[in-house]
Amino acid sequence: MEISEMIAKAREAQLLYQARFDQQAADLVCRAAAKAIFDNAEMLAREAVDETEMGVYEDKVAKCKGKSKGVWYNLRDKKSMGVLDIDERTGLIKIAKPIGVVAGITPMTNPVVTPMSKIIFSLKTRNAIIIAPHPKSKRCSAHAVDLILDAIKEFKVPEGMVQIIREPSIEKTQQLMAQADVVVATGGMNMVHSAYSSGKPSFGVGAGNVQVILDRYIDFNEAADKIITGRAFDNGIICSGEQSFIFHKDDREAVAKAFRDNGAYIVTPEEKQKLIAAIFADGHTARDVVGRSVFEIAKKAGFEIPKNTRIIVAEGVGIGADDPISKEKMCPVMGAFAYSNFEEALHIAKTNLAYEGSGHTAAIHSNNQANIIKAGQEINVSRLVVNAVSATTAGGAIQNGLAVTNTLGCGSWGNNSISENFTYKHLLNITRIAPLSARIEVPSDEEIWKY
Q1: pLDDT computed for residue 121 by the predictor
Q2: Active-site residues: which are they?
Q3: Which of 16, 247, 298, 337 is exposed most, by the fewest CB atoms within 10 A?
């Protein structure tokens, strides 16, 4: 089917859905869509690993289950249509309306949960959506969409509300972006740039390069376990996954022991050079290491690692552009950097993020609230994860208040239009009814200018 035909079908379906589905009906559809992924997590995870040849089966199962229930939990009590709010003081009324047709661009790194979340956000807001999957994950993405379509069929959702390009290509994706009403792009920077150049309102994401600060006087063993869990999750292909940890120089021995005890292999200077050559090509993560295991990476680099290794760690000899280990690494490899005082820790984090990953995410393990707030004030990121696994919580968690999603805005720092987690509210147009309120007395010029 041609893209123009898919768009026409989507527009017709969207108008019917908007007319027939109230808040309760739309929410039941969203629940069914999320449950379809939750119930088929094992099958979809296996298909994703087999087709893309990247990631970890068990982690993809956890991702399918965690994201599906998290998205539904996050959305189930939210109002997304009709009158949203009436301001008691001004009388201003906000009315939510759908945008129309969404172009959902999805990556091979998250070929199941990213289509799912975009579809649910669209159904929640009574928008139609057409998914453009990565060509190397087209089968598992299509199967996820088909399972959702089967699950929502009983609610008589108009045919065309949810569609997917079965044989994706760059040309078809560009046509979709040009003809849709809004673009939500999750994927490589080239695709995100293309979305912003489509001439349509677009939501994209920047590169991730999560810098993790280890404060003084914390439980290093607990912190190391969480950091390593995040870096190892799905073999390091999560954009919110930990990339580098920054530790106090006086804690070097204790930190190294904690990381080794929890499965980190710390390379020698000679091994580091081999590692850099293996994981980077032309300044970017080499394609053949993306989402691959530590053992495949070590084999390519030409050195051996213990059987219990979860991640590989290399210490930086410079920061930012002075050492490539400071860059984003889409595999279970981490950088490590020593600092002399907290100000220097912040400087290292900011320098590495300015080199790559500005605006995305940082993390801190600390018992010092003043330092936590200081990090939030000084590091230009859209989210700062505290004492938790960044890979699995930066994209939203039931306990942390961040919207559950797979699209993480990076603000103007990352050339993005939003500096928060993308969710259903970004797919709404708002009409504001604005009467003059007799309850508000207009102050005199003297009162207004008094300071």
Answers
A1: 98
A2: 239
A3: 16
